[in-house]
Amino acid sequence: MEVRSMHFKATASGKLNDAVLQGAMKKAKGKFVDGRAAAVAEIDVWQPMRTHAAALRDLTIANLDAYLLEFEANATRRGAIVHWAESAAEANDIIVRIARDNAVKIATKSKSMVSEEISLNDALDAAGVEVVETDLGEYILQLAKEPPSHIVAPAVHKTKEQVADLFVAAHHKPRLTDIPSMTLEAREVLREKFLSADMGISGANFVIAETGTTLTVTNEGNADMVTTIPRIHVVVTGIEKVIPTLEDFATLIRLLPRSAIGQTVSNYLTLTTGVKGEGDLDGPEQMHIVLIDAGRTKLVGSDMQEMLRCIRCGACMNHCPVYQNVGGHAYGWVYPGPMGSVLTPTYVGIENAGDLPNAATFCGECQVVCPVKIPLPDLMRKWRERQFTQQLRPWSERAGIAVWSAFATRPTLYAWSTRVAARVAALLGGAKRRITWLPGLDGWTDGRDMPAPTGKTFRELYAARRSGGGRLL
Amino acid sequence: MSARENILRRIRSQSGREGTTTDAERAAAREHIAKHTRGPLPSIAQGDPVERFVAECARVKTSVEQLASGQDVPKAAAQYLAQNALPQRAVGWSALAGLDWQGAGIQFEDRLANKDDLVGVTDCFCAIGETGTLLLLSSPTTPKLHALLPETHICVVSRSRIVTCVEDAFALLRKERGELPRATFFVSGPSRTADIEQTIVIGAHGPYRVHVLLVP
Q: How far is it, in rounded angstroms, from Cα B59 to Cα B79?
């Protein structure tokens, strides 16, 4: 997917003023946040489960080569062909070659964010293969020629009226705005595609080393069609998706749908192991598994390795005050929200995505809801540090930090200057005790007022208390 | 150097390990796998699995009818189809072909399901109490499409085959089958989507109805 993350600030401003988007985001927010809270509240061992899941992901990543080889051996034993791709281009070449070698005309696809990363649809399209997205949300976006704005609910930014217009243009049928009827219309159109496809392409939520299995989680059943009906099944996934055992899958599947949309279980858990066996009436004759690096090994062994635990539930973005207001497209690449603000700079370069780690309030909610305990604010902070030391932020920001650092590392100077600043700020607040303008910080005060400090600094109060002055406030 | 070797080498050098993956490292991974370590099990998953299964089926919108005997399956299926104004015709798995479908007025066909079939009848390897889930395993006599293409999926579940949790289902699978079949299929309720304005609609691509006939 084309990287547009360098335009974050401009795009985000536009999104804040987009009334249709703001309406759609408000509707979604409650459902995701409240739904998750209710589903998590049922589980008495939620925290131990998170700890267990984080540990099992860490253990796998620490021995990633051994578990990938184990997966490869078992998948191969069951008749699958395992391919390795260092880059997006290599992965696309492999899949296009499979399509050409087998004279593939139509490929049905279930949702895969990795395929968005590598722009697989464009590569297959250029090779003359008709690619059909079958997840309803992805299908809507394929018609709209837009990228997903959420990793679980890709069309969360679209209203039903917008979808109705897209369906009229594509299906040439009377305009429907009743959601069940619209869903039925898409079902009928896509059913024909499922049955006529030569190739099915799926992602993988996990791949299991023990059994050589790839695993897809859906509610619609589209991944089941895609992995069962066509004669060729292609799985495209990242090398970090490997987990050791079926028991590990059992733990992760308790965390994933609850974290994602507050579901106790997804409707379909689809485990595919190898090809159609002797006497089988359904299933593909060929299974190809494409394991992609495309930047992942940069995280291995780094101070951001924890990011590789990610199970792509979307809880961090659902709970992020920035994401909730600007939506996923503002982030300019495949992965939005806090997980995207860590991954995008890694995969596409910090010079192309410099605003993302800075588009965070550090409220910490993403870390609290993360089912595998990724310290997302810490990882974003690490990107900010690197940007500072590599002089990748604007000079005014770097100068500001340098000045602040000069004061903050000199306790006496700091104490004196905060005393002065508190008095000046109190004056600026006036009778209403609200600061509406700060010199050089009008970007901040244009949108919001700041309550003016009214009394002494923390240090003054603390000193008074230490000397027996009594209560703090 | 191939992409495979490059990726594996990069993983190792990034984590400060030189050379290629050693036999000892491979053996350690296999040893870890063989332990099949389980994670914490929530209290709500514990207790009587059958009771839990019935309650969870209601949550995921799978309807359940309890029968006194396996012989009652065709009659109960016929009633269910009549109630839902569905034709008395079904495509089903071979193991169920021996029941008296004709006597119940159902035209039962033992062949692979196709796009025109409205009703598919299967049994299952086992069911899972924790989440109201049916576990279907593919084989020459149990193709997956029966549970996928028809609008209505009727599944015969034996009470004695309801286990507590996913881990128990895998333990049973290892014991009885050795390894996973091509398709291991967990079904929890009818197909659904919420991709238009987060509004849940039943019947996205798979069945609109999942009906369990619970037999001893």
A: 23
**A146 in reach of chain B (CB within 8 A):** no
Instruction: Classify strands A206-208 and A232-238 as parallel, antiparallel or unpaired.
Output: unpaired
CA distance B90 to chain A (A): 18
**Which domain covers residue B104, as residue numbers?**
47-215
**A44/B4 touch (CB, cutoff 8 Å), yes or no:** no
Supply the DSSP symbol for B194.
Answer: -
Residue A69: inside a domain: yes
Residue B193's domain is classified under what CATH number?
3.40.50.10420
Contact check, Cβ <8 Å, B15/A48: no
Task: For residues A244 and A385, state if they share a domain.
Answer: no
A415 found inside a domain: yes
Quote the number of domains for chain A.
3
Choose from B139, B193, B202 for mutation: most chain A CBs within 10 A: B193
A314 and chain B: CB distance < 8 Å anywhere? no
Of B14, B32, B60, the CB nearest to A301: B14
Distances from the Cα of B38 to the Cα of A272, A286, A374, B33, B154, angstroms: 22, 33, 21, 11, 32
Question: Å from B204 to nearest chain A CA?
Answer: 5
Whether residue A52 and residue B39 make contact (CB cut-off 8 A), yes or no, is yes
A35 within some domain: yes
Scanning every residue of chain B, which has its alpha carbon at the shortest distance from the alpha carbon of A196?
Answer: B115
CB contact under 8 A, B191 and A221: yes
Per-residue pLDDT of chain A (473 residues; tens, 9 = 90+): 899 999 999 999 999 999 999 988 888 888 899 999 999 999 999 999 999 999 999 999 999 999 999 999 999 999 999 999 999 999 999 999 999 999 999 999 999 999 999 999 999 999 999 999 999 999 999 999 999 999 999 999 999 999 999 999 999 999 999 999 999 999 999 999 999 999 999 999 999 999 999 999 999 999 999 999 999 999 999 999 999 999 999 999 999 999 999 999 999 999 999 999 999 999 999 999 999 999 999 999 999 999 999 999 999 999 999 999 999 999 999 999 999 999 999 999 999 999 999 999 999 999 999 999 999 999 999 999 999 999 898 888 889 889 999 999 999 999 899 889 888 888 888 888 888 887 777 777 777 788 888 778 888 888 888 886 555 54
Same domain, A26 and A54: no
Q: For residue A253, give the nearest of B186, B193, B157, B189 by alpha carbon.
A: B186
Residues A266 and A338 in one domain: no
8 Å CB contact of A280 and B182 = yes
Asked if A264 and B166 come within 8 Å (Cβ–Cβ), the reply is: no
| Contact (CB, 8 A) for B107 and B90 | yes
* Chain A contact present for B164, CB below 8 A: no
Which chain B residues contact residue A266 at CB under 8 A?
A: 188
Q: Where are the beta strands (DSSP E) in chain B?
A: 63-66, 89-92, 107-109, 119-123, 126-128, 133-137, 152-158, 162-163, 183-187, 192-193, 201-202, 209-215
Q: What ipTM did this prediction achieve?
A: 0.97
Task: Using alpha carbons, list the distances in angstroms from residue B122 to A194, B119, B125.
Answer: 22, 10, 10
Q: Indicate whether A181 and A274 sit together in one domain.
A: yes
Classify residue A307: in a domain, yes or no. Answer: no
Tally the domains of chain B: 1
Chain B segment 69-88 residues within 8 A of A by beta carbon are: none
**Entry pTM:** 0.94
**Contact residues, B window 38-57, toward A, CB-based 8 Å cutoff:** 38-44, 56
